[in-house]
Design brief:
The protein is α+β, with helices and mostly antiparallel strands and about 240 residues long. It has helices at about 5-10, 20-35, 35-40, 55-65, 75-90, 90-95, 190-195, and strands at about 10-15, 70, 100-105, 105-110, 135-145, 145-150, 150-155, 160-165, 180, 200, 210-215, 215-220, 225, 230-235. It starts with a helix and ends in a 5-residue tail after the last strand.
Length: about 240
């Protein structure tokens, strides 16, 4: 199975990825963790996002300028519910992102009034020429904000986004025509801030999984009322058997 550029720049959705009972179970599991909310919110000093040459605090200021709750080590029971949902969704995933073989561990995030995540690319992390390869992100809302907090992707035709074609694509597991985006495609880079982009936003029903390619810019709008809670992860491709 070779990786096509459309998988890393595409979008998709899986309705009813989580059922209502599963969402209630997840809410109960996270409620116990969130009794120490300050540890994961204002008191947090690390982030799942990294910017080479920048500290965790600097990366947080770029990606989440108004803060957020972020819990990368969720309870094992919650992880199992989400991984089981991923396994159920494999047939649907295979139609739109067929190279995906694994779902990485899940992270819980929560946004209050004024909080959001700024536009960025995840990239084919950690290295587009080694395995496994990050193909797409996945986001599942379990509690909607009263207003705001919509998820968005941004498309762009600018050559500035792209670093180079994938070298020797067949040998490296890519389809012909594969391109690799520049590293540092986030608001720490002036070129990214200035690059014209077109924004597409969505407010999915709770339990719906959103899929967004690893070479597609994405973010969220600020929450204006209430709180938005979701689980996020990354879908990757293992090295094909030879």
């Amino acid at each position: 199975m070779t990786i096509h550029i459309a998988e890393t720049t595409g979008v998709g959705s899986i309705e009813n990825f989580l059922g209502s009972t599963e969402r209630l179970q997840l809410a109960a599991l996270m409620h116990n963790v969130l009794t120490d909310a300050d540890r994961f919110g204002d008191g947090r000093r690390t982030s799942i996002h990294e910017i080479p040459g920048h500290s965790h605090e600097q990366a947080m200021a770029v990606y989440e300028p108004a803060g957020r709750v972020e819990i990368p080590d969720i309870p094992q029971a919650a992880e199992k519910i989400l991984q089981d949902a991923f396994d159920r969704a494999r047939p649907a995933l295979a139609r739109i992102m067929p190279s995906i073989t694994v779902c990485r561990p899940w992270t819980y995030v929560e946004y209050g009034a004024g909080q959001h995540i700024t536009s960025h690319l995840d990239g084919i992390a950690p290295d587009p020429l080694t395995w496994p390869r990050q193909i797409a992100g996945i986001s599942v809302v379990v509690a909607q904000a009263d207003a705001g907090g919509d998820f968005y992707v941004e498309t762009a035709s600018s050559d500035r986004l792209w670093y180079r074609p994938a070298p020797d694509p067949e040998a490296n597991g890519y389809a012909e025509g594969m391109w690799l985006a520049h590293d540092g495609a986030d608001n720490s880079a002036a070129w990214f801030q200035q690059m014209p982009r077109t924004r597409w936003s969505v407010d999915p029903a709770p339990g719906t999984a959103l899929l967004y390619g690893s070479q597609l810019a994405h973010g969220t709008l600020p929450v204006t009322a209430g709180r938005c809670a979701k689980f996020i992860s990354w879908l990757a491709a293992d090295e094909p058997a030879r």
